[in-house]
Amino acid sequence: MSRTGRDPHPVIACGEVRTCLLPTRDALDERAAVKLLRLRPDERVRVSRHPNRYVVSPEVLTGVDCPLPTDTGARVRAVGTVGSHASLVEGRVIQATASFSLPAVGTDRRQAWSYYLVRPGSLVPVGQLPQRALVRGFLLGHRPGRLDVGSIAESVLARISRQDRILDHDPPLTAADTRLRWTAVRTAAGEEPSSLFTKGEDGLRTLELSLPSGLPPTAAVGLCEELALHDWLLTTVADKLDGLPTGAADDRAVLRVLRPLVDHLLHLWMPRARVDRVLQTVWNQLEETPGYSRQWTAHAQRIRDQLALRAIHLRDEVPGRR
Amino acid sequence: MNESVPTFRETSAEPRVESLPFSHLSLEIGHLYMEDFAEGPDRLRRHFDTVRPWADAVRNDVGAHLADARPRVSTCFLIDDYFSRLTTPDELLPPLIDAAAGAGLTIDYLARESGCAVAPGADRTLVRPAESVMHRLVESPPPGSSGFRPPVSRTGWLSNGRRTPAQRSSAALDTAGAAWQPPRETDARGHSVFLDIELWSEAEGERTWSCAFLASVWQLVRLGLLRDNGRALLAPTPWDDAGFPTDWDALPPVLRLNPRAAPFTAYVTCSVLPRRFLPVEHAVRVVLDQVHVEDEPLRQVAERSGSEGFAVPAGVADRASYVFPLGL
């Protein structure tokens, strides 16, 4: 393990990504986005402009000392910091991620706090780490008294949402928030990365990843954020198109649904924008089944066709244009 | 596994961090209140006469830890111009420098305490080191902390453990026998020494940082561990003018009085201080233990000190040492 920085070779990484529409009428320009995500005055907000505009806040740490979630009820205490940050895609969709990684070897007792501060985003178990029980327990969700990663991600979102000088809290469309809870374990030597994505109820998704051991946990975070973003986009657009009336009388109601999608969401589809090359296979597997990009293309085409049809119809209705 | 080779980079997406020059040790040879200066030049001379043998001892100790290199030790003196301004720089500084010289000590760097709160930054902006450090506090979690706790940025208090749970003030409610529970120091060895530190106070919207918190910022500045958006903070300004201005704000936050001085920032620090600062410096240790310093400055210190074979403790709080002599 390196002396400072994240442990490059943890055995497990876990986290939760929350995705939602930024609660404001218009998408933020880069300047406002940087201001919004300046969670610390002395550290730069990172901006990437290609292949889309993507702004990332500095990493914020939260100290924890509590039992880890396990599905067997085994009590494993871990001490350290959970890292969290927020990112904004094209000034429109905000994501907050809280994550941590675990080293293979724990300590026999809690160390001085400085020991944990030079391992940002690492939780060090006190005693043995039952890996399988932890992974299954984490995916099951938070239980009282155990580590609560979701509330750490939520507090980042809450902190950002409180900036009323930048946000007007008048979003152009309603969209449900989603949560993606993920775990990443190491693959056996020579194995390809693999994944299992589960879409649950109430906006909860889970992703179980197996990653090559040389890959840093930040690569898993990047993949999960991309997946969460595209899943959110697809879910939101599919929900809006579900039950869209086709009758001619409903033209204006239909336009009220379709227009915000065109104004705010259609240009955001950009799969594999920042996914580590090694992890592209995971994304490609999801493109095979269920085929996210195919579905998105179909939806986008439908929106454009509907708009074209309504435009013809509306033009026909204007008196004197026949 | 093969590392993937980047084919496209964006500088706005990558953090840049300025490197600093480092001495082996930064030696603070005094920190006085304005009231101490009012007692006249004899008071100052007594101060430096007392500090001198300790300063020599610290210097020798650094030399003893270096196999072949000459020890680089820079001295500094912190003036409190934040809490009171009884006199002006042109009245206060010349006798101070003379008194140090009289005792055989050179003040390499002179710093103003208010620079730890607000200082001029690049491009005519202002930097606020104390506020930046406040946002870098990552509280040491008492056992049972699962991720939900009011952050220090809201309360303004930082402790080294778990506070006594809030008591009901009404006697009528106390009949249930809500027993008093003691506070607990998280790293206690058997028994606790619990400390709760006020980082700032506020009156009419104005925030006044506490002496303990500014002293923590001062240690981080000397240790070269702070940056503002990647740029160095409170870099020393050469001062070879014969005189000093009449206004404290006309002075840079850190002055280099000795052109041949070793670098201001150092791998470790030692402060020779009056004993009344003992509680303040205890608080400094507790604060430093909970500051999340950026990776890159830590890495710079680790790499450079490592290449010189100079041992630097991993924990930031352990990089600061103290002498509290009799007579100060």
From TrEMBL, chain B:
Per its UniProt record, what InterPro entries does this chain match? SCO2522-like (IPR049747)
Q: What is this protein called?
A: SCO2522 family protein
